[in-house]
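Supplementary Text 2. Reproducibility record for the structural model of the 59-residue chain.

All settings were left at their defaults, and a single model was retained for analysis rather than an ensemble. We include the record here because the model underlies the residue-level annotations in Supplementary Table 4.
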Amino acid sequence: MPAFTFEKITPPVRRAPTAAAPEKPRGVISQMIERIAERRARRALRGERTPQRDEKAAE
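Retained model, structure tokens:
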């Protein structure tokens, strides 16, 4: 006869369905890359718009 026994521990029961996990905050590197990309996009848009303004002024 064993001197002691082990009891099986059951995992806790989830009472409510889990909601969507909140998004983790973005890392510093991701934020920097995003800022650079936004600035490049703005510059590209300015580059496309500038000739249109010059054409209107020439007319």
